[in-house]
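agent> Task received from the user: take the single chain below, predict its 3D structure, and emit structure tokens. No templates, no multimer pairing.
agent> Plan: (1) validate residues, (2) run structure prediction, (3) serialize to tokens, (4) report one or two observations.
agent> Step 1 OK, no nonstandard residues flagged.
tool_call: predict_structure(input=
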Amino acid sequence: MNSVPTVPTGLSVPPEWTGYLHRVRWSEVDPQSIVFNSRYLEFCDAAMTEYYRILGFGPVPDGPMGFETVLAKVEINFLGSAVMDDLLHIMVSCTRMGNSSLDLGFEIFREATQELLVTATITYVNLDQSTRKSAPVPVEVRTAMGF
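)
tool_result: status=success, residues=147
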């Protein structure tokens, strides 16, 4: 692997977190032979899951701490295009922590050249599974994300 891109915000993350790697598959490109725009959100979703996992909060609905997020808002910037068989390196960090919501910042690089292709900020809301209403982000999650 080439040099690892930096975490978008400079926040500390576990030393074992080096980002999420994704190889572009045939089904992810469009007739222009580039990754179709909505696929980048799928890549961010997979990277978010692995980021949570490395912090100790795996994808278990209504887990022991009541941490289950839903997507509320997306801001995405397309700076370049990935193509079939590109290996993408996706970095994630928490850029904002609210009472019941948080923002994750994403940077998607082409691994071979370290070219930055996409940046995104996604707002997630912590959801109480029993009431389906927003709930405070648990202290353990805040601490793990540096807040």
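agent> Step 4: summary for the user.
Residues 20-144 form a domain with the Thiol Ester Dehydrase; Chain A fold (CATH 3.10.129.10).
agent> Done.
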